[in-house]
Fold:
Amino acid sequence: MKRDSRLSSVLHALLHMAEYDGPVTSETLAQCLGTNPVVVRRTMAYLREAGIVSSDRGHAGGWRIQADLRTVTLRQLHEALGEPATFAIGHRNEAPACLVEQAVNAALEDTFAQAEALLLQRFSEITLADLAADFARRHAAARLERH
Structure:
């Protein structure tokens, strides 16, 4: 099963956008992410619907962050992306007749639910501002190493 990397991509894009004073084009973001501008536009549309970004058309257009980085959490972004599956593992058979497989599914389902709740709770605690601050620290350290 292929992993859904949209949350990681969105975080990457938003942190780049936070470094710009004006709008950032889909083409520029696509270069940062190593993807196609169409993929950027499709993904950013979810964030626009959630009020996190806006877009301007035309020659000077592009994407802008609308929301305050201090208030946008990873959980909000996960929700804006349609709450993709958090785990790439699952049941062999969703509705088994075998009692052994039913017991296995029950144990896995409970464990998955607990793990997902913990992950989403942690996502609620991390903001874009936290990530931007971490990036700024890393960037400053890298600049010091170069000099």
